[in-house]
Design a protein that fits this description.
Helix content: over 70%
Radius of gyration: 19 Å
Order of helices and strands: HHHHHHHH
Distance between the termini: 60 Å
Structural class: mainly alpha
Oligomer: single chain
Number of helices: 8
Strand content: under 5%
Length: about 210
């Protein structure tokens, strides 16, 4: 399907040549902190199930397993690399022990929901497993949230692909323009939250 627009047309030849293997590899990498087009791959593979080039059930199973394993691998890197890895790689971006303490407290309170919902925010999806591992989110909690989030994520984007039809150009626009914009908005909200918390911590008692 070389006539697919944008990123879909870029992914299609790989699925033409390698089928389910391409689906598995791209989705795995997209959940292992790397900027691989995982959502677009799900959409294209779903379109191929409509045309009969792929089968729906294998696509769902392969995509779900790849998503779960990719985020588990990211979790393992964060867990065993730990804080030294985070401090070393993030020092230039303001990553400190204090920031990690707050991240750990946040994941302790809302880690399960964050892992599930974070699947739908590209930037957060790439960092989800890594941060969960670094902050020490319990393995069982992470695995359950990871499996549930992956199932919902795969189901949503597969449904989008199967229903895209004549709206495929609009879907491409969402993935290429709207999703990055949402990621930027998310980063700005996080920065605003961190700045606000720091001001509260450093403000004199009488000003609070």
């Amino acid at each position: 399907m070389t006539d697919l627009p944008g990123i879909f047309g870029t992914i299609a030849p790989y699925i033409d040549d390698y089928g389910y293997v391409a689906v598995a590899v791209i989705i795995f990498l997209g959940n292992l902190t790397l900027p691989a087009p995982a959502e677009a791959t799900l959409v294209v593979s779903a379109i191929y199930t409509v045309s009969g080039d792929l089968s729906l059930v294998p696509v769902l199973v392969v995509a779900w397993l790849a998503a779960v394993l990719g985020e588990c691998a990211a979790y393992a890197i964060g867990r065993y690399g730990g804080r030294p890895l985070a401090i070393r790689l993030g020092r230039r971006f303001g990553v400190t022990h204090d920031l990690l303490d707050r991240a750990e407290a946040f994941y302790e309170r809302r880690g399960t929901v964050t892992v599930i919902v974070g699947r739908f925010i590209p930037l957060l999806r790439r960092a989800n497993g890594l941060v969960a591992g670094i902050t020490g989110l319990a393995w069982r909690r992470f695995l359950v949230a990871n499996a549930i989030g992956a199932a919902i994520w795969v189901a949503v984007w597969t449904t989008v692909g199967r229903q895209a039809g004549s709206h495929i150009d609009a879907v491409n626009t969402v993935l290429e323009r709207v999703a990055p914009l949402l990621a930027v908005v998310f980063v700005l909200l996080v920065i605003a939250y961190v700045v606000r918390r720091r001001r509260r911590r450093t403000a004199p008692a009488e000003d609070r």
